[in-house]
Structure formats: C-alpha cells, structure tokens
Amino acid sequence: MTQLLPEKVRLLTFNVQVGIRTQQYHHYLTRSWQHLLPHGKRSSNLSNISTLLQDYDLVALQEVDGGSLRTNFINQTEFLAHKAGFPYWYHQTNRNLGKLAQHSNGLLSHYQPEVLEDHKLPGRIPGRGAILASFNCSNNRQLAVVAMHLSLSKYSRNLQLAYIARLIRKFDYVVLMGDMNTASVSLLHGSPLEGCGITCFQDLKTFPSWRPKRALDHILVSQNIKVHSMQVLNCTISDHLPVAMELELHE
Which end of the chain, N or C, is less packed with Cβ atoms under 10 Å? Predict the structure, then answer.
C-alpha cells in the first residue's frame, strides 16, 4: 500500500561536518586532524544531532561520512537514521577516498519515497551530488525533495542548478534543501532556477555557527507550497547551523 505524506511536513537540512564540533576559526587548524583520524567525542556529537533530528519528517544531511577510518568505519547516515528512529534513509557517497574518507550526503525520512534517485552533479571538480526523492501526497499530487551540496564556484553551481532545474520540471511540488554555498539571491535570480517557480521564504544566516554572517544553507520551495515557519536552530556542533521549516501541501 502506498504511503502518503500528510498535509503538513517538517523539514530540516544540516551540514554536520562529519560530527566535528567547530566553535571558533582556530578550530579549523587545531581540530583538522579529526577529518582524518577517529575522535572519541564524535559519537556523542552525533548522538546529540540525532536527538535534534527526531522532531522532523524529512532531513537532508551534508558532510556525512560513509564509513572510513576517521569515523571508526561507521556510516554516519545509517547511524543517525537508526538513532533518531527514521525507517527510511539513503546515503550518497560523492568522493570515495577509500579507508581515509567517504564524503557523502544523506536523506532521512519517516515516509517511504515513491521514487529515489542518486544524481552526480556536473562541475569543474567532481564530487558533488544530489538525492531526489518523490512522495505521493494526500491530495493526489507528488512532492519532489532534492537534497544537495553545491559547489563553491558560481560557474559550477550554475551547471548544477541547470541539472536540478531539469529534474524538477515534472513535479507538482518541489523542495530543494541543503548546503548551497551562496545566498538565495544568487540561486534564484540570474541563475538556471529563475523561472522554475522556486522561491525563498526567508534567507537565514547559518555560517559560521558561532557567529553567523552568511546564508549558505537553504530550504527553497515551489510557490504553490504554503510555509508556516522557518528558523535556524541553535545547534553549534558543526560549523554550520541547521535550518528547519514546516510547510503545508495544499491545493
């Protein structure tokens, strides 16, 4: 039997920085070894993140590791899914460095997707990806959720946005969420997303987490979706803050 999304859905996107707790700029240097080697507090940091995730229906994760030396060979998407009680999860590895690192995206859901697709995004430097999941809604329409981590360069981002724009054309409702590495004005105006009917409810500053100055993490929605609330959560485990949204899928 097909599982339907409810009318109201709670979303979260979070760049978790592999479970590294970064709270000052100098931590990028002093804690850089944690990107390569195991760290005793990583598991407790992830457990704290899992507690945060429990309140949401769909979660997009960036900078999770697929199971390498630095995480004691634990797939972090799977760990967070089980710890937070998500029955459906998907892990996408975009840069496979073997035992050293498995740079990845993740998607967690309390509802079974009708379709789940893994997309490698174009760009000058390979290693960026998007996960597309589509869900049947209670009003007989379909919602597409695209979880992504976009490139730093504008040229590569626009290639990636053009690819994503082609993916979402056929869907009634669309949600784009993830670490997009730029402000929403660059994503929606003068870019391949312009004219796709996608809007930003609110531009929220998420980076760096200890003194947010830049809006890099977004949840963008199609204009026929009603947004009830959107906020940045006070969770300073990563160098990014998570963004949460509650939306309604109406006629």
Answer: N
